[in-house]
């Protein structure tokens, strides 16, 4: 019986279900890394809408909180500014 329990512990749930385990773990992102990536996008385009920024962040794997913290830091440092366009959409632009 003890041998049988040991055999069960060897595999993971993902192996049992036929999935693969991730061998690489993502390194935790720092706030400055996210801020620099966001600033690079905004300065490269000149300006970007909030919706476009969050879609880009989703593709890159950033959370909404990561992006919002980066935006707040960049606005406080004066590197970008927030404004509303004629339609009332929030736009971020590089200074």
Explain what this protein looks like in three dimensions.
There is one protein chain. The chain is α+β, with helices and mostly antiparallel strands and 95 residues long. It has a domain at 30-95: Orthogonal Bundle (Arc Repressor Mutant, subunit A). Helices cover 57% and strands 14% of the residues. The protein has five helices and three strands, in the order αααβααββ. It has helices at 2-10, 13-17, 31-45, 50-60, 64-77; strands at 47-49, 80-84, 90-94. A three-stranded antiparallel sheet has the order 1-3-2. A hairpin with a 5-residue loop joins strand 2 and strand 3. The model has no long low-confidence stretch (mean pLDDT 84).
Keywords:
95 residues; three-stranded antiparallel sheet; alpha+beta; single chain; Arc Repressor Mutant, subunit A; elongated; 14% strand
Rg: 21 Å
What's the shape?
elongated
Could you state the CATH homologous superfamily of the domain at 30-95? Winged helix-like DNA-binding domain superfamily/Winged helix DNA-binding domain
Low-pLDDT runs of 5+ residues are none
Number of strands: 3
